Amino acid sequence: MDLNIEYKERILNFLKSHTLCVISTIHVEAERPESAVVAFTESESLEIIFGTSNQSRKYKNINKNNNVSCVIGWDSETGSIQYEGIAHELSKEESIQYSNKQVKKNASSEKYVERDDQRYFIVSPKWIRFIDNAGNPPQTHEFNL
Q1: Which residues have C-beta within 8 Å of that of residue 79, sequence separation ≥ 6?
Q2: Do 34 and 27 form a contact (C-beta atoms < 8 A)?
Q3: Region at 79 (left for phi over 0; alpha for psi -120 to 50; beta for the rest)
Q4: How many domains does the chain have?
Q5: pLDDT band, very low/low/confident/very high, at 1 (cuts 50, 70, 90)
Q6: Alpha-carbon distance 6 to 137, whole Å?
Q7: Over the stretch 108-131, which tens digit does the pLDDT of each residue have?
Q8: φ, ψ for residue 28 (rounded to 5)?
Q9: pLDDT digits over 14-55, tens only?
Q10: Are the beta carbons of 132 and 10 closer than 8 angstroms?
Q11: Which residue stretches of 44-114 are H helix?
Q12: Residue 20 is part of which domain span?
C-alpha cells in the first residue's frame, strides 16, 4: 500500500503521542537479535531519532549492521507501529538539533545530552505496519517505503 497523506499524518500523530520504543539490532558477532527500550523523537518524514552511549551494544551493532527494527506503542486501545529501517549516526551539529527536540518531548533524556559518550542516530523507514485499534473496527495497514 502506498503511504498517502492521511496515513502519514495518522502515523506521525501516533509517533508524537509516544516517548519510548523498543529498538532491535543484530549482535555484531553472534548475529542474534538484541533489543532495548529507548526514548525517541520523530521527524516529519517519519524518521525516528534516538540517543545512545557509544559504549552500548546497540551502538556497536548499528556500526556493523545498520538495519534496525522498532516497536512503538503496545496498547490494546490505541494500537502499535512496527517499523523497520536503516540507522545512520548524526553529525555533532545534527545531534544538537535533535537532542533538543528529544528533551522537549521527553525531559528525562536531558541527563544524557552532555555526556561525552552520547551519540544520536536517525532511522529512515523502509517498512511500517500501523495497527490502529482506535478505529471501529480496528485496522492494520502496511507500507513499503
Answers
A1: 14, 73, 130, 131, 132, 133, 134, 138
A2: yes
A3: left
A4: 1
A5: low
A6: 18
A7: 888 888 899 999 999 999 999 999
A8: -60, -35
A9: 999 999 999 999 998 888 999 999 999 999 999 999 999 999
A10: yes
A11: 57-64, 92-105, 110-113
A12: 5-144
